[in-house]
Specification:
about 180 residues; alpha/beta; Rossmann fold; six-stranded mixed beta sheet; three-stranded antiparallel beta sheet; 4 helices; 9 strands; about 25% helix; about 30% strand; binds 1-O-pyrophosphono-5-O-phosphono-alpha-D-ribofuranose; binds guanine; glycosyltransferase; hypoxanthine phosphoribosyltransferase activity; EC 2.4.2.8; PRTase_dom; Hypoxanthine-guanine phosphoribosyltransferase
Length: about 180
Amino acid sequence: MTMELPEARTILDNADCLHDEAEVLAALDAMGQEMTAKLADSNPIVYTVLNGGLIVSGHLLPRLRFPLEMSYMHATRYRHETSGGELDWKVKPREDMKGRTVVIVDDILDEGHTLAAIIDYCQKQGAAHVYVAVLIDKKHDRKADGVQADFVGMEVEDRFLFGCGMDYQGYWRNTLAIYAVKGL
Ligand SMILES: O=P(O)(O)OC[C@H]1O[C@H](OP(=O)(O)OP(=O)(O)O)[C@H](O)[C@@H]1O
Ligand SMILES: Nc1nc2[nH]cnc2c(=O)[nH]1
């Protein structure tokens, strides 16, 4: 459901800014360097997980200083809620990833069910290696079994976040800074 403009603005005005633009860009710089050092000779397919991964990918991909192919997939389980439900695959990857190195880029690893399903899918398609890069790893002990990211920009406290690709009821994906909703 669409939010009224004053309400959308109030959400941002009242939110706690946890990481400002400069901190996010510094984290992306470090991720880019780490990924370039590790993956430069791997000729990967780098997948953006829509919608949330869009802003992170837009900043991260230019920081990957090596040859790669890029594509996207869309899997979602939060919709406009603040807790996750069943995973809905809206767009599955279409490339032949057999024998390839695959890199999954997303905004956040929270409970990990989204990434668990994506990793499983890529492995079943025959990917030789699946790496995961997320800007945010949320700190709590509710992670899905065995799911972890290979490249993490920052660890963030266990609150409901928005900004840098993450939405609050469909809004505010379009900030670079990362916020927590007041009271959540
Ligand atoms: O680790 P998890 O608890 O599974 O949550 C992480 C996922 O949740 C968000 O996507 P969302 O379901 O909101 O879809 P969207 O990106 O299309 O909004 C985010 O972009 C991750 O893909
Ligand atoms: N917007 C948003 N999406 C999420 N998906 C998983 N965790 C979060 C979160 O904290 N905020």
